[in-house]
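Sanity check

After download, print the first record. It should look like this:
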Amino acid sequence: MTRVALRGLWGRKLRTVLTAVAIVLGVALVAGTLVLTDSIDKAFDTIFTDSRQGSSVVISGKSAFDVTDDSGATVPPLKESLLQTVRSQPDVAEAEGSVSGDAQIIGDNGKAIVYGGAPNLGFSIANGDSRFNPLSLVEGSWPSGNEVVIDGSTADKEGFKVGDTVGVQGRGQVEDLRISGLVKFGSVSTIGGATLAGFDLPTAQRIFGMEGKLDEIAVAAKPGISDTQVATALRTVLPENTQVRTGAEQAKDDAKDTDEFISFLRTFLLSFGGIALFVGAFVIANSLSITIAQRTRELATLRTVGASRRQLLRSILIESVVVGVLASIVGLFLGLGLAKGLFWLFDAIGFTLPNSGLTFETRTIVVALVVGILVTVGASLRPAIRATRVPPIAAVREGATLPESRFARFRTPAALILAAIGFGLVIYGLFGSGLGTAAILLFMGAGALLVFIGVALFASKLVPGLATLLGWPTARVGGAPGQLARGNAKRNPQRTASTAAALMIGLALVTLVAVLGQGIRSSFTGAVDKIFVSDYAITAQNNFSPIPTDAADAAANAPGAEAVASVRAGQALVLGKVESVTAVTPNAGEAIALDWADGSQAVFGQLGENGAFIDNGFADDNNLTIGSPIKITVPSGTVVPLVIKGIFDPPAGGSPFGIVTFSSATFDKNYDQPENLFSFVKMRGGVTDANTQALDNAIKDFPNAKAQTRDQFKDNQVSFLNNILNVLYILLALSVIVSLFGIINTLALTVFERTREIGTLRAVGMTRRQVRRMIRYESVITALIGAALGITLGIVLAGLLTARVDFINFDVPVGQIVVFAIAAVIVGIVAAILPARRAAKLNVLRALQYE
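Expected structure tokens:
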């Protein structure tokens, strides 16, 4: 039977290839994801390892809690005098202090060089030849006073060379420095879109406002002294507000945030691989069901000559295993190319990732092969079991069909029960109390899976009505071919439903993403319209990084500036949890409007030293009212007592404020290096060309800052969301492509099945062109059925999600839905090209003679 199975596959090469494509694409995305994330992981590990390669111990300030990068909060710095204390210890061979921060390199256009969301890294280089320096000098020399070294990648992109003068901005105004050399970081080929700027220690301290302070002290132990020994010794002589870690511990801590990001990215991308494989399972099951039905006489003949039901089952499963193995191997190597494509895709949306070359782990090979084979075999089980029910008498009976399973009568109630359970799990995941993030995702994922399966099984009951409705235009305009196509789609509802189900899943998810994206956009823009009562906003060039507070002071001096309200951001321990907190300047009420549940716009100016305001959700959750005391702990460990003076009702799209908001004066007193997240400016005369120019001139010394009108602010803030949505659409397009091949496969198989029928139609006068149109119309009708089911299901699921999430409005993007429907028609037309040509080329006489 093994030989029979293999010969059967070889004899049906086209069908085998079309069936395998679904697995190839799904496995490619799984393999590509693993290669991508392993490569990123290796690059980050190399970066962090290289950066600590010469350090036995790293000393830094101690924060009261883990501070997140780019949160606006920083770890308290060290006093520079500690460096001499460390050097004087008997176990220390060498010690070096350093400072670091954001340092924007200024381009020839006078603007900060920013590559998407990549960081702009600045740091001190006390000694270029030091064991602690992870940089390699490519050209020139290490920096001395008023000099800078930059990375070679930025120099190549911007046309900088050694000896040029370049502007650099840290925490103050731009400083013009001479480029003394070009560098690269460790052994990685690229660190993503990050820019590097290195200075000698005094210059770095001046640029970052850290005179007399250090961020870290790197320590090398004397020969024969272990890292742990020197760390223990140093802890006994250093103040309590210092953190002492071994170099390995520090590298691990540095990698903590990126490890979480890579884990999220891996899970995120693997979910799309799972979707593609899930859709592929429908394609495989449908294709095998059709081919088994077409091979009824062949299978019956095997039964007649002595093959047992077990042997038939084994034969079909051998076919599926072979298809799964071959498809998985192809998908595995296609995944390498896909990984490169994903690097390019993230780079295109401004999210350039570090790369030290593709990493192809053994685990990737094993996972890809196992997943591909299991999905293929799993999808083939039902058709394989069905093949065993072929009676031997069918070998001599013309037009014999497979008998229905004894469970077939339960299909409809089972489908409805599965769908109901699925919706129940989704609703419980969204609205159930006490569920963690993992539990919510598990219930929602399992629920969505059951919903898709249930709807796919029930769809056969909807096909006749949908085919009649959606096929009306083809029957009306297409004449006889259109009427025949509509009849063909209705002839075998189960087959049409199975074919449409693959497209349904892809379009359901695309529609879900589109509705959620539109809801987020509309709720955000609505919130901006309610809160933003000023004329301009000042943000960083990349729209989300903090900017120096001096930029707002400069804007306040612009001619015509009536009010400049700034929002600072940081983190604090609030009621035992690390939360985002914000601070505002006293005049914020002139540029920002809130809907006060308790209080008024006057609250902004009444915060003083200990006043704060919160939103009503936080107030209700913690039983807080006007006058309630609340304490927050800042990174230095200082406890700041506050009193609630206002409670506001945030709009659906959220607000620029954190859990607790207090005065900028209190923030500046308790946070090192405060920066603004946003500044809102009210100008005399509103938005005019003259006012825009006046603001641009006022902040020209801050190249990383830009002034925007309300509409520009909304567009820029939403642009990142649009980039994410585009990535989602591209990833989901793989499932649509899989369904495209499913339609091609089904049509090709049905053309084979209807050989005599098509020959008869040709014999009674149907032209080749009419045959092509008939197949094309049938494909379009099938695609539209999938689109109708998918779009409806996507809107329903999006409605459930938006009902749960307060800050997202339910807003259906009608234009995009129309585009999806048109895309479904295009999918149907493209899918029909090969099958239609094959049908039109059938020889009439041979077709009439076909059994």
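If your output differs, re-run the checksum step. Summary of this record's structure: The radius of gyration is 33 Å.
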